[in-house]
Amino acid sequence: MFMILQKLLKEIESLNPVGKLDNCLSDGKKQVNIGGLSASSKAMVVAHVFRKLLRPMLVISTESETAERMADDLKAFLGDGLVYLFPALGISPYEIRAPHMEIVGQRLLALYNLSCGQPMVIVAPVEAILEKTIPKRDLSEYSLRLERGKELDREKLIALLERLNYQRSPMTEMLGEYSVRGGIIDFFAPKDEDPVRIEFFGDVIESIRHFSVLTQRSTSQVESTVILPRREIIFNDDIIERYAHTLDEAQAQALYITLGDNGDYDGLEFIWPNMSVNMANLFEHLSQQTLVFVDEPGLCDGQAESVFETAQKRYKSLCEKSDESYRLFAKPERIYLDRHMFDLELERFRVVNLTVSYDDERSDVVFHTRAQEYFSSNMSFVKGRLAELYQQGYKLNILCEGPSQKERIGELIDDLHFPIGLHVARLSSGFAITELKQWFLVGNQMFTRFRKRHYIKRFREGVALSSYNSLNPGDFVVHIDYGIGKFLGLETLVVDGRKRDCLALLYLGNDKLYVPIEQLNPVHTFAGKD
With pLDDT > 70 as the criterion, what percentage of the chain qualifies? Predict the structure, then answer.
């Protein structure tokens, strides 16, 4: 949380639109439409409502990037421990690939914290809402909280890790692995940044520590931790065998080829309904007290239709193939929520719609905000524009991502002869509140030209890494997003105040890419033609 944003939340309490919003919510209105919200002011309103009501909330955003920005903005207003992102799986419909484990970890951690019954905010893109996830009962059954000083049968812990498809190895180095050495059990859960070491004294947990996969030495001690499933689909090899026996020989062979033999079970997200495995949607994890915010409902509706239509087209394309492997895969309506089911689920909750535009007849509450413009990199223009805003009677606040940026911006505007507040606070986009006559300008937007992110074609000509230990400096590797590079070695970097062990990869032009070793899924050893 940042002081300037806490002050802002206090100041908006006196605004007329905030009073009208509070009245709508206290009157029990089933749906509230809020208009006139630009940029990060949407997160400001959600944060105000959360502080006012202190109940579970879900924010639905159109796409993954908007969800990530909303989650980051809410953390700036409320703090990290109250806001959780529930991301989309990151695999296209019927793409034969397992989701990255760190994404699965994020999703399961959000659901687990939601199950604890404490007030919190979940942020999810539409695609994540449509995707099925672990049922609430299974999450409870296959999660285990470990506390220092408590008794626990060591064999029970090992059995749980096996049931959750953690891979036993001599040394825990990768997400989803565990190892056993006498009274010590190490495991690397997808939700964690570092693996965990549990040391037993008899049947008592004597210590719980995080450790470095690079040195295998402890880095910190904690009082408790939670083991969550490695995958959202709870299954075992017996379930796969039973399904295979219902298929003819060619289809069964196609099943085993599709799932692969690397332990990732590729494509399982599109086969599970045929295996009689139960799954749920995110709405089924929410209590009736949950308040749901929909960020730009028109766009969300369109995105819901688009995701489901894409799934239908890809399933139809599978069916048109000459072989019968498509019979392995379930129809889209068994895998995703369609638009109709999405609307039915939403009707069970109180909904607050957040929009930039507003209609005096349809909007229950209207805010008057303005989105920050993109300033020129020409400093004389920037200073002139700031002077114009000041002359219009606005109080100016510039939000800097850190102390160094605050110092740099301070030096750049030092010759201006009117007050400008410089604050360390991170928001994704700046805005003005007309009623308060205040601008909250984001430093990065003022001095950087933002470009649309371009996605590089994913490379697939490689063999998945089983461990970073299989690499030697000078080996060529393939990153599915960035292509072929040369492995330089392991380096320890400090990111957000935490030490991270990373693979250093060298690319053309001496560009370097650092990949955290707990996120090796996108990195393959190069197996292309000479």
Answer: 92
